[in-house]
Structures are given as structure tokens and as C-alpha cells.
Structure to design on (333 residues):
């Protein structure tokens, strides 16, 4: 429950509910999206927010941070996609109580700054998962078939698919891989129960190194943290089997780009496909041609279904938070 409100609540549960509700009247919720939600998603968000008795404000396709700073000045809640919610934005939002990132990753939100202010930060896990998983599999096939250019390609059936991080997206990629006749192995240090992997017919490996050594296709799903930034590079790629492909639909920051370039240089059989262009992507494209590929702009969640699901989930979570104090998806606990 929002810590800026809890201390004000009264002794009895009945009075708590009444007082809590009165505090949350006239709440203003801002949807700030440089890359807007689909119209259907916006209409759904509006229905949820206004149906709960709150005010909805929209800031779409903004081109300057000053516009965002002005828009957040009087809002109580904020919904974003990949928009940067920096300390400066948080400082400008004097009434802000909750931020919801419509999607799984939340490294675009300054968690430390939010926590200092007692602001709850949530994500919407699972809402974009199928869209990202389908893209990962599509990239594997795309690279296996020479990016759909003339020449003899290969099939992914019978190959080993490695899943690095077996969360919502990783599980779906693994299931789709098995449906296509791939052997699936996975590594996730945060899942200690072997039954999670066994239920999907997936072989659990004991280390990152074992995972990469086994994988003809490696689907990467780790978040960008202090521990993971720059962790995927030369040594891991060089350990992969002949003709292997690394597919990144996670974060650019987890790749050691110089290590990646070195591995691709030394092994002409390796391939790299990413949904987040590397900082040196033009150089990679020029040097390695069809062996590398990056989408023009991050496309993992760019489906109509994911767009709507994530937007509606974000709005529902904010309303639930204001109405009941539910913090189930809080990421800055």
C-alpha cells in the first residue's frame, strides 16, 4: 500500500476504508507514451480509469522531455511504455503515488528515486510475453533461412534450443520450440524446483556455460542488472556449437558488444539476431552482412494483442492499488 497514505489511516477497518477512499477521490492518471498505445488500448484504459471515477490525461508522441515534466506536475499515477521515468521526472511529479510500466522490463524507471519518495513502481508481467516469444522463434527461422534471401538454409527441427532465463517469455519460447521439434534446455538460477522444467519437458542445466555449449539456438531473456550488464560476449559465444545463433529479445545492455564482434570475427559460422540494435550495429552490419540482424526498432511487444493487454493491465493495477492497496506487481519493494 502506498506509504504516503498508510500513516494517515484510522484505527478501525471500516473507518480505514472510508478514509482511504476519500483520500483517493479526484485522482489523475497520466498515460505518457512517446510511442503511443493502439487506439483500442487507449479506449480501454479510459474506460477502466473513468469507470473508477478517476481522471485520465494523455501525453502521446511527445518530442521533448520538458513536455513530460510539465505533464506529470499534478498527476497521481503514471503509465508508461519504454519512456524514461528518471529522477528528474519523479521530482517534477509532486503528487505521484504509483508508476506502472506497461510491459515486463522496468529498467527505464529510476527505482531508487521512486522508493525514496514512497512511490510504488509496478510492471505488467506476462502481458507481452507471447508477442516476444513469437518474435524470438521467427528470428530463429529467419536466420536459419538466410534472412529469406537466395541460398541453402537449414531447419530448426532437431536442433537444440537454449533458454537463458525461464520466466514468462522463456517458457513460451521453449514450448514453441518443442512444438517445432527442437530439443529444449534451460538455465535460470532463480528457479530451484526441477519440476518447473520437467513439466514442460525441458532439460535443466547447471550453469550458463553448460547452456551455451549445448545450444544451436540460444534465446536470451535476462534483464539488465548490475550482474548481467555486458555478461554475454566472447567466451560464451565461442563455446557455442558450429553454426549457432544467438537471439536477443531482452536488453541491449546485457551484450558485451566488443566481445560479440570479436567472436563473430573469429568464427564465420556464428550468427546474431537482436530486437535491440547494438551501439555498434552499423559496424556489425557492414562487417558481417547476413550473419547479423537487428530490427529497425524494438518490436517484441509490437502486436495489437500485446499492446492492448499491457495497457489494460496497467490501468487495472492502478485502479486496484487506489481502491484496495494491492501491490502484487510492485518491483521496488
Amino acid at each position: 500500500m502506498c506509504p504516503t497514505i498508510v500513516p494517515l489511516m484510522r484505527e478501525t477497518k471500516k473507518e480505514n476504508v472510508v478514509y482511504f477512499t476519500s483520500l483517493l477521490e479526484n485522482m489523475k492518471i497520466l498515460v505518457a507514451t512517446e510511442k503511443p498505445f493502439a487506439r483500442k488500448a487507449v479506449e480501454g484504459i479510459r474506460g477502466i480509469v473513468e469507470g473508477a471515477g478517476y481522471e485520465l490525461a494523455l501525453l502521446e508522441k511527445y518530442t521533448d522531455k520538458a513536455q513530460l515534466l510539465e505533464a506529470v506536475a499534478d498527476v497521481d499515477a503514471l503509465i508508461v511504455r519504454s519512456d524514461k521515468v528518471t529522477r528528474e521526472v519523479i521530482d517534477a511529479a509532486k503528487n505521484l503515488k504509483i508508476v506502472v510500466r506497461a510491459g515486463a522490463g522496468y529498467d527505464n524507471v529510476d527505482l531508487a528515486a521512486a522508493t525514496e519518495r514512497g512511490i510504488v513502481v509496478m510492471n505488467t508481467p506476462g502481458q507481452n510475453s507471447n508477442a516476444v516469444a513469437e518474435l524470438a522463434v521467427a528470428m530463429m527461422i529467419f536466420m536459419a533461412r538466410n534472412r529469406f534471401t537466395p541460398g541453402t538454409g537449414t531447419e530448426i527441427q532437431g536442433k537444440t534450443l537454449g533458454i537463458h532465463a525461464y520466466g514468462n517469455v522463456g517458457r513460451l519460447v521453449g514450448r514453441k520450440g518443442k512444438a517445432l521439434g527442437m530439443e529444449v534446455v534451460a538455465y535460470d538460477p532463480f528457479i530451484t524446483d526441477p519440476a518447473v522444467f520437467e513439466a514442460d519437458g525441458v532439460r535443466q542445466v547447471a550453469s550458463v556455460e553448460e547452456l551455451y555449449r549445448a545450444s544451436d539456438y540460444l534465446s536470451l531473456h535476462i534483464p539488465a542488472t548490475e550482474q548481467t550488464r555486458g555478461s554475454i560476449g566472447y567466451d560464451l559465444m565461442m563455446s557455442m556449437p558450429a553454426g549457432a545463433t544467438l537471439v536477443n529479445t531482452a536488453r541491449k545492455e546485457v551484450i558485451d558488444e566488443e566481445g560479440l564482434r570479436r567472436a563473430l570475427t573469429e568464427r564465420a559460422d556464428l550468427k546474431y539476431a537482436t530486437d535491440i540494435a547494438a551501439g555498434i550495429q552499423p559496424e556489425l552490419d557492414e562487417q558481417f552482412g547476413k550473419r547479423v540482424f537487428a530490427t529497425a526498432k524494438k518490436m517484441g511487444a509490437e502486436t495489437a494483442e500485446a499492446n492492448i493487454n499491457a495497457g489494460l493491465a496497467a490501468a487495472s493495477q492502478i485502479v486496484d492499488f487506489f481502491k484496495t492497496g494491492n501491490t502484487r506487481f510492485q518491483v521496488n519493494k
